[in-house]
Amino acid sequence: MSAALFVYYRVAPAAAARAETIVRRAIEELSGAHRVRGRLMKRHNEPLLWMEVYEDIVDLSAFEDCLHRAAQAAGLDSFLDEGERRHVEAFIECA
After folding, report:
1. Which among 2, 6, 27, 72 could disulfide-bond with 38, CB atoms 3.0 to 4.6 Å apart, if both were Cys?
2. pTM assigned to the model
């Protein structure tokens, strides 16, 4: 059974352009390495609220570990708005 992972957070206005480049690169690398479908979304009426979506994950635990390490290596927390953190939610399909 495959899973989907949703990661949402608010980026700092001054860091948005640089953050987008880095996040898109990280999504591309993770998607290719783990054969998942990944994309970046922004809330339609709040463009600094972002969501990374990863679908078709076979080994959720391993992917979450890799995602966490990739975020740390890229320094993604440094792009977040003050007081923000990355929220990670995992969902599986209903049987």
Report:
1. 27
2. 0.92
